[in-house]
From TrEMBL:
Protein name: Uncharacterized protein
Biased composition (Acidic residues): 713-726
Keywords tagged on the record: Membrane, Transmembrane, Transmembrane helix
Organism: Nonomuraea dietziae
Residue segments, region Disordered: 702-726
SUPFAM superfamilies: P-loop containing nucleoside triphosphate hydrolases
Lineage of origin: Bacteria, Bacillati, Actinomycetota, Actinomycetes, Streptosporangiales
InterPro entries for the chain: P-loop_NTPase (IPR027417)
TM region positions: 1130-1154, 1160-1182, 1189-1212, 1218-1241
Length: 1532
């Protein structure tokens, strides 16, 4: 949303608030809650205390309500009134605090009224269902009403539910949508059944349908091939109405129809997913569960993601193809939620083959079958029926015309012709029972087709109807009548008025028309057009196409099967003369009011030369009036009519206008320009032939298509195959030169400028042309806007600063003049002056012009004041930043209200100013804003800037989704992400393109970024670049960047030995960095400390070793010099000796204390000491001890022995007794503590670790949990080792795993940590590991994905909110929603329930939020897209799909949920728990268990506590479903 749109929205909200300020909130809430009020109902429920008439006048005068007169009780007329539909949601948002209370009051008040109107009854029924979470009761109620035949009651109930859903939110909104789909489907089925009143069962066709739908053969598509009137449409109606299933006694199944005659002509080139949309809309009514609604919403999200990518300035072709396949997958998931089988019907398939020359590929056909094949691969039960008049696969005998077709063995072709004798007899018996035998024979003879002896269904139906209504018809006369008796007698013969017969002849020639188109010809014959038009509309062989505002026919058409027959019977109406009449109507009618029928008729009836002149006039009017939206709709229809003309045709001119209209709508179509070039030679005017060909070549250049490739029918088969694969309208970027200057009369000026803008090149003729245009700048019709744009293209392509600056200044001069008339094929930018200033600033930035070269300060001020000046303001910041640091006050003043290009550039300015964290927040805001608005270009621009800043700060903490960007981002994003990842791991990546020129700051930062990538691979080059970058950055006042260059150069020289000629700067100034501690995860603080150490003369040490690893990667591992067992033996020998000595000392001390020396012999003391020493040595040498235990016990005994010896020197009495007692304390405490630790470990199961990388998988038993005792693990090992339970781990050829293990001790969780490489993280390892362990372990197994992070400070934990929740209201359990920007103190428990959405910035979670009112492309009212909230979770994050009627796994959304979980886990969350799809009851139980089991103390939970909670949840979920749970846990 632009700043202008935001301002308009803000002012609109303020205006609405002022309009509502004079009314009570309770009154407004009541108005919003009901679809419609009446005076009687308002008085009965005491809606207001003031006189109702005065209230309604006030509300209507403020534009808040609409009203009408209706009949009330006992026939009394009264007012009915309702809130305007566009204001209801906003009104509800203003009074949300009293909505539920007022709803409860109205429910009680209306429930007490008797009798109730049908509308009030429907509202009361709907409001009583508002808390039902599944919505199934509402859908079931609507189904019952439909089955009872009360469609009106069903519609009223749906309307009431929709209103309540929009105002109250909650599950009723979704349930109302599903119920509305059911009603719409019933209406279509009712219409089908009406048309099937006289349907004739056709055995062959129905048998083919039965074999297709109910069989399991290899052919899964059926093509009904036949001409008009052969029964294709009736078969489709029979299938879609449900009668096909009912006649075969099978359950009803979903049938979706898409008619290519009504599909947007931009399919498939510009809207490749449009067919799936049309089919999905038809299928919605077959779903009853929330699963269907959620799957359809997922399909809409996938479609939006595709549209985002296609909307990029330069779409990524590979990503477009991937997104199209994702769209097909989403559609398949939607279809999978419906009953089986699902049948897709594609009607009027001949439209796919139009406009393609003979022998050339038909991308429409190829693309359509590609989509069907993608769907079939995922939906084996899918069936497809195609209907049309043209072949879609190669016929048995080669065609002499038509496009190139591909073999498709899965398509069965059934040729539909006329009725067989038996079918015709059966039809007559049904349609006209009791018909006389002679009349029956006459009808059959008249309907018989010449050649094959079959009967034309349309003719038979017409004659049968005639015979049924006129049973006295003379059979002999009918049989022997020449010509076409049905038309002559049944149609023309019943038109008694001669005037009406003339009108009928004109109508047959026109085909489809309105009153204005019919009038000139009738007036020429002296006929009043109005009554004649109304009379024609009354005939049953005339179809009413459109109604006017008064309900009368506005556009009508003669049945297409009768037009030629009427023309053969009636006197000629003069096609050319009618064409001129139509042309006169076209010329005289304003384009917005001109119906397409008039244009169709004029082009079809006029001779080609006159049609070309008409189209030239029409195109000029489109250009002058800017009616491109009208042209978009008209061109496709008229081109379809003109496509059938043989010989000379104006189809190239029509397609050229269509291409120009598409480019105005941001949908440039290179294929359309290709067709223009192909058909240009058939234009009747030689001048226009060459002009159209030139326009086509320039248009192809402007849209990026290779002008050397043409759609020549004689091209090689290999080229045709390549063309077939090129079905997407995402052209490669090329740069063909525009070698010819535009013509002098301005026809091709716009085309030339558009081509040069798309493919910039320095044209040799440009300077002369610009000089000529400058001389004529004040002439009438001067094309100054195009001249300005032309000068801009040349300035950007110039190779010298003086030349580029001169051309840019010339562009600005042209932009200051009147723009001139609008041009074909090109529109000037919305703000031409800003466009030219932007080019001038680009020149200044590129060529490092001084700050006084352009008046950038004035331009910045004007750009900031304009709604569309963001790009210019951003360039002024870039220009200034290239020369100097922007002051903080300036940056505060420039802070944009709306994220965009200016915000991206300001992020760099804030980083240079020493506040990179603010820069990061700006860029994060840009990404989130762009995600909501579907702006893929801004997403890419902001993420590239964020990756660049992360590279400058040497951190990956700012980009938690770095791995996802490196694999699935846009091409530039992938490159930058991989480079950052390699840099942070001490690896090597390709450096960015070398910047040879630029302002000091811009070039210095570019050199620094380039050098960082060269440190390991080419340190000499890196040192040279850093030496050059440092003074440039200091000159630009980028102190942080200069210091970074210095630090990096010092360390690179030290570690690699690379040197430059000058090292003077190495001893100048302190090595201070402005980003040492403020940037999370930055390497610069440690690199700076290492550089300071180098300055002090240090050559070794842990700081330098760490810096070396950061810059050059880890050193290769070196094998130990001696076996590990030697060290353990030495430890044990030394420990044994020391134990013995300490035991002797303790014994002697004890003897001395117990009695004087003379009382106990020395021999006795030595004997006792020997016994104790032998016991100690045995304990140490036992296999249970390790280095940690040796060190622990050794210290305790040594301390005790020293204290005992010291105590022996004391005199007898209490001093010596106290000394001996103290000497026993270390041994007692150590032994007791060790015994307790041993008991804990023996009761707790061991930790297993499962690792997977490119080389395979490994399973190991780590031992006791290191977190039990706060990390009592020494360098020599754990203090206590649990007994081993893992016997063997086997990995089989099919990828399955088997773990042979004994049951671990205890009853708590058995934890298994997983360490997964990025390429395998999305796989379902939790289930595979659960299946791998024995059954006795499976119930206790808790698999988690391991991570590491810092503990949250106690003060932060204590101050944080306990929990927050977003999702369906019935699961809230009293919890509040998190702040949109996040809580300043964070959340200990954040529970989010919603659906994942794929965006240009990666997957996001969309949740329900009753307090959200903003509506964007991603969210509706009452929804929120989760972004910054994830950063504020410091404890547990629970991610959960929306509940459904049956529990199931994450399915296709698993990877997306894991991506969101990984993003939260990479931030501050201690743990993330991803749950599967649950029922409402199970979800409520799990929610209660999590809230009750999650520790709420004054400290962050231990990992073991998180495992206990996960095991509790797992046991609630039960077998099978528990394995779908995913846990991410930081263990330290």
């Amino acid at each position: 949303m632009s700043s202008l749109e935001q301002e308009l929205e803000r002012r609109g909200a303020e205006l609405l608030e002022r309009r509502l300020s004079g009314f009570e909130p309770r009154l407004l809430a009541g108005l919003a809650l009901l679809p419609e009020w009446t005076e009687d109902l308002a008085r009965a429920v005491s809606l207001t205390g003031e006189p109702l008439a005065e209230l309604l006048e006030r509300l209507e005068s403020l534009g808040l309500i609409e009203r009408r007169r209706v009949l009330g009780a006992r026939g009394r007329r009264q007012e009915a009134f309702w809130v305007r539909s566009g204001l209801r949601s906003e009104l509800a948002g203003q009074v949300r605090g009293v909505l539920r209370e007022e709803c409860a009051r109205l429910e009680a008040a209306i429930g007490a009224i008797s009798p109730l109107s049908p509308s009030a009854q429907a509202w009361l029924r709907a409001v009583r269902l508002r808390e039902e979470p599944t919505g199934l009761e509402l859908v079931a109620t609507v189904d019952r009403l439909i089955q009872d035949g009360d469609l009106a009651a069903a519609s009223r109930l749906v309307t009431a539910a929709e209103v309540l859903g929009r105002t109250l939110g909650g599950p009723l909104a979704d349930a109302a949508r599903r119920a509305a789909w059911r009603v719409d489907r019933l209406a279509r089925a009712t219409d089908d059944l009406e048309h099937l009143r006289h349907y004739l069962h056709r055995q062959e066709a129905e048998q083919a349908l039965t074999e297709l739908i109910l069989g399991d053969g290899e052919q899964w598509a059926l093509h009904l091939l036949g001409g008009g009137g052969t029964g294709k449409t009736m078969l489709v109606r029979y299938l879609a109405s449900g009668r096909f299933a009912a006649d075969r006694q099978v359950p009803p199944f979903p049938v979706a129809r898409a008619d290519f005659d009504h599909l947007d002509p931009r399919y498939p080139e510009q809207r490749p997913g449009l067919l799936l949309h049309a089919l999905a809309d038809e299928l919605l009514g077959y779903g009853t569960h929330r699963r269907t609604a959620n799957a359809f919403r997922h399909f809409e999200d996938a479609s939006l993601a595709l549209d985002e990518e296609l909307g990029r300035t330069i779409p990524d072709r590979s990503r477009v193809e991937a997104l199209l396949r994702a769209l097909a997958t989403a559609f398949a998931l939607f279809v999978a939620s419906l009953p089986e089988p699902v049948v897709l019907v594609l009607d009027t398939c001949e439209e796919l083959a139009k406009l393609y020359p003979p022998g050339s590929p038909a991308p429409g056909i190829e693309h359509t079958f590609m989509l069907l094949e993608l769907l079939r691969a995922e939906l084996p039960q899918l069936k497809v029926v195609l209907a049309g008049r043209r072949w879609l696969v190669p016929p048995p005998e080669p065609l002499t015309a038509g496009p190139l077709l591909s073999e498709r063995p899965y398509v069965r072709v059934l040729r539909l012709g006329g009725f067989a004798q038996q079918e015709a007899d059966s039809y007559l018996s049904r349609r006209a029972p009791g018909l006389r035998a002679d009349l029956r024979a006459a009808v059959l003879d008249r309907a018989r087709q010449r050649g094959d002896g079959r009967y034309n269904p349309f003719e038979l139906a017409a004659y049968a109807h005639w015979a049924a209504v006129e049973p006295e018809l003379d059979a002999r006369e009918l049989l022997e009548a020449p010509g076409d008796p049905y038309v002559e007698r049944r149609i023309v013969g019943r038109v008694l008025s001669s005037d009406l017969r003339v009108a009928l002849a004109v109508a047959a020639e026109l085909g489809r028309f309105d009153l204005h188109l019919l009038s000139p010809a009738l007036r020429r014959h002296g006929i009043d057009p109005g009554p004649a038009f109304d009379a024609l509309a009354m005939y049953d062989w005339v179809n009413v196409v459109a109604l006017g505002a008064d309900g009368r026919a506005k556009v009508i058409e003669v049945d297409e099967h009768l037009r030629d027959r009427l023309r053969a019977v009636l006197p000629p109406a003069g096609p050319a003369l009618l064409g001129r009449d139509a042309a006169a109507v076209v010329d005289a009618t304003p384009l917005p009011e001109l119906p397409v029928e008039s244009v169709e008729a004029a082009v079809r009836l006029l001779p080609p030369a006159e049609a070309g002149e008409l189209w030239e006039r029409l195109e000029r009017r489109v250009v002058e009036g800017g009616h491109w939206g009208w042209a978009t709709q008209v061109c496709a229809r008229v081109a379809a009519v003109e496509e059938g003309r043989e010989g000379e045709t104006i189809i190239a001119a029509i397609l050229a206008t269509q291409a120009a209209a598409d480019s105005r709508a941001g949908r440039p179509g290179p294929r359309v320009w290709s067709m223009v070039e192909l058909h240009a030679a058939r234009h009747p005017s030689p001048r226009h032939r060459e002009e159209l060909r030139t326009r086509a070549l320039l248009g192809m250049t402007a849209t990026g298509q290779d002008v050397a490739r043409t759609s020549d029918a004689a091209e090689e088969p290999e080229e045709r195959e390549a063309e077939e694969e090129d079905w997407l309208d995402v052209p490669p970027v090329i740069e063909p030169p525009v070698t010819e200057p535009p013509d002098r009369d301005g026809v091709l000026v716009g085309s030339t400028v558009a081509a040069l803008e798309a493919a910039p090149s320095r044209a040799a003729w440009a300077d002369d042309t610009l000089a000529t245009l400058w001389e004529s700048r004040h002439d009438p019709g001067a094309v100054n806007a195009a001249a300005a744009a032309l000068a801009v293209t040349q300035a950007r392509a110039a190779e010298a600063v003086q030349e580029a600056a001169r051309l840019a200044e010339l562009a600005i001069a042209f932009a200051a003049l009147p723009p001139g008339p609008p041009l074909l094929d090109w529109d000037p930018p919305a703000n031409l002056l800003f466009h030219c200033r932007k080019a001038r600033l680009e020149v200044a930035v590129r060529w490092a012009e001084p700050l006084d070269a352009v008046p950038w300060e004035l331009w910045r001020a004007e750009a900031l004041a304009a709604p569309d000046g963001d790009e210019v303001a951003a360039l002024t910041v870039a220009f200034e930043l290239g020369h100097r640091r922007l002051a903080r006050q300036t940056l505060e003043e420039l802070d944009p209200g709306t994220p965009g290009p200016l915000a991206v550039e300001l992020a760099w300015a804030w980083a240079v100013a020493g506040d990179p964290e603010r820069a990061r927040r700006l860029l994060d805001g840009c990404v989130e804003h762009a995600v909501h608005e579907g702006d893929a270009d801004l997403v890419e621009r902001a993420r590239l800037a964020l990756l660049g800043l992360a590279l400058r700060c040497r951190t990956t903490a700012w980009v938690p989704e770095l791995e996802a960007i490196a694999t699935a981002g846009a091409p530039a994003e992938r490159s930058a992400a991989r480079a950052l990842a390699a840099l942070m791991e001490g690896g090597q990546a390709d450096p960015p393109e070398h910047l040879a020129s630029g302002a000091p700051g811009r070039r210095g930062r570019a050199l620094l970024a380039e050098a960082q990538h060269l440190v390991k691979g080419d340190p000499w080059r890196a040192v040279a670049l850093l030496s050059e970058a440092e003074p440039l950055l200091r000159q630009a006042q980028d102190d942080d960047g200069a210091n970074q260059a210095l630090v990096l150069r010092v360390l690179t020289e030290t570690f690699s030995g690379a040197r430059t000629r000058s090292t003077a700067t190495r001893s100048q100034g302190p090595l201070f960095l402005g980003v040492p501690e403020s940037v999370e995860g930055s390497q610069w603080p440690r690199l700076a400390r290492a550089a300071e150490g180098v300055r002090r003369g240090e050559t070794r040490g842990p700081v330098l070793d760490t810096a070396r690893r950061m810059l050059f990667g880890p050193e290769p591992a070196v094998a130990p010099a001696r076996p590990a067992g030697d060290r353990r033996t030495a430890w044990r020998v030394a420990a044994g000796a020391l134990y013995a000595g300490s035991a002797v000392a303790l014994t002697l001390g004890f003897m001395l204390w117990v009695a004087p020396a003379e009382g106990v012999g020395v021999v006795s003391s030595l004997l006792l000491a020997s016994v104790v020493g032998v016991a100690a040595v045995g304990l140490v040498i036992s296999g249970r001890a390790n280095e940690n235990v040796v060190a622990l016990l050794l210290g305790a005994w040594a301390a005790g022995g020293a204290l005992a010896i010291a105590g022996a020197t004391l005199p007898y009495g209490w001093p010596r007794a106290a000394a001996l007692a103290v000497s026993l304390v270390p041994a007692a405490l150590t032994g007791g503590g060790y015994a307790y630790l041993w008991s804990v470990v023996m009761r707790h199961p061991p930790l297993y670790r499962f690792s997977v990388d490119a080389e395979g998988s490994t399973v190991s038993e780590v031992g006791s949990l290191p977190w039990l005792d706060g990390g009592l693990v020494g360098r020599g090992g754990r203090y206590v080792r649990a007994p081993s339970t893992l016997r063997r781990a086997l990995t089989h050829e099919d990828g399955s795993i088997t773990l042979e293990m004994r049951q671990p001790p205890g009853t708590g969780p058995v934890p298994m940590a997983m360490q997964l490489s990025p390429e395998v993280r999305d796989q379902h390892w939790e289930r595979r590991l659960a299946e791998a362990v024995p059954a006795v372990v499976r119930d206790r197994l808790v698999v988690f994905r391991e991570g590491y992070g810092e503990k949250v400070a106690r003060r932060v934990w204590v101050a944080a909110r306990k929990d927050a929740y977003l999702g369906p209201p019935h699961l809230a359990q009293g919890r509040k929603a998190p702040s949109a920007r996040g809580g300043m103190l964070g959340y200990r428990l954040l529970h989010l329930v919603g659906q994942v959405v794929d965006t240009a910035a990666g997957p996001r979670l969309r949740t329900a939020d009753d307090g959200a009112t903003a509506v964007t492309r991603r969210v509706r009212a009452g929804e929120r897209l989760i972004g910054p909230e994830l950063e504020d979770a410091i404890g547990l994050v629970v991610l959960q799909p929306e509940p459904d009627e049956r529990p199931r796994g994450l399915g296709e959304s698993r990877a997306a949920f894991l991506s969101v979980a990984t993003r939260a886990f990479a931030r501050n969350a201690q743990a993330v728990l991803v749950l599967p799809t649950l029922t409402d009851a199970l979800a409520a139980e799990v929610t209660s268990a999590i809230r009750a089991g999650y520790p709420s103390g004054l400290r962050q939970p231990y990992p073991t506590e998180m495992l206990e909670l996960a095991l509790k949840v797992k046991r609630i979920l039960g077998p099978g479903l528990a394995d779908e749970m995913v846990l991410l846990l930081k263990t330290r």
